[in-house]
Write a structure and sequence with these properties.
Layout (H helix, E strand, L loop, with lengths): L1 H11 L10 H8 L1 H12 L2 H12 L16 H15 L3 H38 L3 H41 L2 H26 L6 H13 L4 H18 L21
Helix pairs in contact: 1-3, 1-5, 1-7, 3-4, 3-5, 4-5, 4-6, 5-6, 5-7, 6-7, 6-8, 9-10
Length: 263
């Protein structure tokens, strides 16, 4: 039952699911944080689910899907890798390394699925030429979903179901050195995510000082991550208030005079 519930959320959160909810609903439950939280509730370990989900999320802070091409499949990460790490009792570092590896395989599977569905889209185009609306709907909606459901539901279901029985045995077979390497790589991956995020969002190098202050606050003080977030929001408001070129709130823009022109 637990494996089926996790797999159900994995199917509902997938971008290809045409039946359940809007895109906003899917986006709300598709990320690693949501996947860790939901999997933690279902598996009875919410704290570990949130911790693993937040750690894995740092790898994909700046992940974007350009033209349908993705570097990593978030659905596989959120509802296959994270639940597998929870049922196996793996630590955060190994869970992050596992997510980074399987995400690439998931992206390759997604690309194969999209390519295979082009067969159905061609069928739909021919149905439009024949003005056969029922055949068009089957080609565009039904047949891709028939292929999609076993992938998005079946992979998480089988992984969690078998992982609960055999995951620990598999982990015991992995050499200790490989686990250490996985922990080291997992610890390095968040730095990559942070670097990509800064490279895409930092428009002024002087603003790097706020990032440095946040790192120092986490590293050298007892402020937790929520406190750092509140501190960062407060500093952002102060920066906006005292920025010399900020627009005045509620003030109409100045309109240059045009002499005696009655217009």
């Amino acid at each position: 039952m637990k494996a089926a519930l996790i797999a159900l959320f994995g199917w509902l959160s997938s971008t290809e699911c045409p039946y359940a909810g809007t895109s906003g609903f899917k986006n709300a439950i598709s990320g690693p944080i949501a996947g860790g939280f939901i999997s933690g509730i279902i598996l009875g370990d919410v704290s570990s689910g949130v911790i693993v989900g937040c750690a894995v999320q740092t790898i994909y802070l700046a992940t974007l899907v350009m033209g349908g091409a993705m570097s990593g499949d978030m659905n596989i990460v959120s509802y296959t890798c994270i639940p597998l790490a929870l049922v196996a009792g793996a630590d955060v570092g190994f869970a992050m390394a596992l997510s980074a590896t399987l995400a690439i395989l998931g992206a390759a599977l997604f690309t194969f699925y999209e390519g295979f569905c082009s067969i159905f889209y061609a069928m739909g185009d021919r149905a439009i030429e024949r003005v056969d609306i029922p055949a068009m709907k089957r080609a565009y909606i039904l047949w891709p979903a028939v292929i999609h459901f076993p992938i998005r539901f079946g992979i998480p279901f089988v992984t969690v179901l078998l992982g609960a029985q055999y995951a620990q045995s598999v982990l015991d077979l992995i050499p200790e050195q490989a686990l250490v390497i996985g922990q080291i790589v997992g610890g390095m991956l968040p730095a990559v995510g942070m670097a990509i995020l800064l490279a895409n969002s930092l428009k002024d190098i002087k603003l790097m000082v706020f990032y440095i202050l946040g790192v120092m606050a986490v590293k050298f003080t007892t402020i937790n991550i929520v406190g750092v977030a509140v501190l960062g929001a407060s500093l952002s408001v102060l920066y906006y208030m005292f920025a010399p070129d900020r627009p005045a709130v509620g003030k109409a823009p100045d309109i240059p005079a045009r002499g005696n022109d009655p217009g």
